[in-house]
Structure prediction request, 286 residues.
Amino acid sequence: MAATESEVQERDLSSMLSDIAALEALAEDWPMEQQNAAQARAEAVDSLNAAAFRRLIRSLQSAPGIGAALKSAAGDEVVYTVLRRHGILKPSLHEQVDAALDTIRPTLASHGGDVELVDVEATSVTVKFLGACDGCPASALTFYGGVKKAIQDRFPQITEIRQKKGLGGGSGVEYASPFADFQADDWAQVAALSSIDDGSTQVFDVEGESVLLSRLGDKVTCFANSCAHMGMPMDGGDISDAIITCPYHGFRYSLESGECLTAPEVQLQPHGVRVKDGQIEIRLTR
Prediction:
């Protein structure tokens, strides 16, 4: 049954983009002739839509108050995305600054880290380090030598670049573990950050896998609920000072790093974890 207009309007941008990506993936195994035909049809539809949008805007330019109305409409993320796709709107300053950060992200990723653009204003920017870069002793050097340079080389009008620290209380990605891999897909939302007390560990089932989720100060960690010794579940073990003891054979593990304090050659299986918009999300390591 076709979706009603109200149902279509209520869908968010990410779900619609996911649908498009899924449809594009269907064509990956098609014969090349069929792929080319599908691509040509998509480009023709895009061209038609772009021409219609441009003519519509030109025809309305003389209407009183149309400039303010168009600016307001472009504030909608779906409208903005479509108009950007067709080249009718130029990239926002936020997009341009984020593209500048892309030049240093491969270097950060090679060390298990990333940087998130938190806020952009006319002359100031706020960023946040993620993963291994968050709290790293070398993060100050990375900030001044990498992030600030990448931004100010391209945008000299931005004179203030701030680094946001701390966990929670914001929008977007607020924290990501060094094991997060910074990939967009396969994240499962498991709990609100506010539901996990600082210093506590809880057990969750994520896509059929039992995991240990711990909140430790300004970090959240996630490990398989399975002792590296014989694979026995850990959740019945004692926890003290962020150390969990296997209830079966006494192996002790750090809930911060997964390191086994009893037998250093083994460790708990880590999973990617991040806090996004106040929600804890897990990405299983397969």
Summary: The longest strand covers residues 113-120. Residues 3 and 9 are 10 Å apart (CA to CA).
